[in-house]
Amino acid sequence: MDLVRRTIECPFCGHHLHISIEITDEDQDYIEDCSNCCNPIHLRIHKDDLHHSVQIFVDADDEQYY
């Protein structure tokens, strides 16, 4: 497992947050609260072995997926 540090932007208030992500072989899906506005941020992490990269998807927790 690797530890990756990234800066993301809160989808609610635009505040920049520094997060640490533990990269695993499986996709991750979790909620982290914004330290500025306290709204829940939905994070999805995908490890792309083919391109040797990590994709981080950030959106508001109240958005729906179809």
Q: Which percent range describes the beta-strand content?
A: over 45%
Q: Which class of secondary structure composition applies to the elements?
A: mainly beta
Instruction: Sketch the major β-sheet.
Output: 3 strands, antiparallel
The helical percent reads: under 10%
Number of domains: 1
Q: On the 0-100 scale, what is the average pLDDT?
A: 88
Secondary structure: number of strands: 5
Q: If strands are numbered along the chain, what order do they take across the biggest sheet?
A: 3-4-5
What Rg do the Cα atoms give? Answer: 12 Å
Low-confidence stretches: none
User: How many angstroms does the end-to-end distance come to?
Assistant: 31 Å
Name the shape in a single word: elongated
Q: So how many helices?
A: 0
> What is the N-to-C succession of helices and strands?
EEEEE
Q: How would you describe what is shown here?
A:
The chain has one domain. It contains no helices and 5 strands. The strands form 2 sheets. Strands 3-4-5 form a 3-stranded antiparallel beta sheet, with no helix packed on it. The chain has a two-stranded antiparallel sheet with strand order 1-2. The mean pLDDT is 88. Pfam families: Zn_ribbon_21. It comes from Alkalimonas collagenimarina. InterPro entries: UCP037225, zinc_ribbon_bacterial.
